[in-house]
Amino acid sequence: MRNLTGTFVALAIASALIAGCSTQQASTPRASAASEAVPGAPIEFRVVPDESNSTGCKRFDAQLFRGHTFRVTGNTASFTSASGLTSNMTQTSPGVYATDYYTFGSVTLRAVVNAASSPKSLAVTESKYWGGCRWSAVAP
């Protein structure tokens, strides 16, 4: 009986290795459901400023450089900034979510996450002042 169990385990491992290799060679990345965010799974982003940002935009660089977390929950999603501000995002198109997550006076930072793209991306913009400011990130 012991020898039969060892043989079964060896065959199962060999089959898994063969199946894994053949599946890996035959698979191609898909941009549809496979690239969309898994519900509840956090996606971490670290933004970098756009090279064309004016000096007025640089006041936000330090705060935005720290990590941001995106999490899908059904048709909505949440976006948590590095400082702990959490905003609900609404789905604007399949896999794309947006929110105005930071408002100070008349300055508003808008975050748009594209969870359907590969790699997943985040764009943060402020369009009213300094000729427009832009920061972007891709998920690792």
Q: What profile does the largest beta sheet have?
A: 9 strands, antiparallel
* Strand line-up of the largest beta sheet: 1-3-4-5-6-7-8-9-2
Topology order in helix (H) and strand (E) letters: HEEHEEEEEEE
Alpha carbon gyration radius = 22 Å
| Mean pLDDT figure | 74
What's the total count of β strands? 9
Helix content: 10-25%
Structural class estimated from helices and strands? alpha+beta
- Dominant shape: globular
Number of helices: 2
Low-confidence region ranges? 1-35
Termini separation (Å)? 48 Å
Strand content is 35-45%
* Overall number of domains: 1
A few lines on this structure:
The protein is about 20% helix and about 40% strand. The chain is built from two helices and nine strands; from the N terminus they run αββαβββββββ.
Summary tags:
single chain; 140 residues; alpha+beta; 9-stranded antiparallel beta sheet; 38% strand; globular
Description of the molecule:
With 140 residues, the chain is of the alpha+beta class. It has one domain. The chain is 21% helix and 38% strand. A 9-stranded antiparallel beta sheet has the order 1-3-4-5-6-7-8-9-2. Strand 7 and strand 8 form a beta hairpin. It is globular, with a radius of gyration of 22 Å. The N terminus is likely disordered.
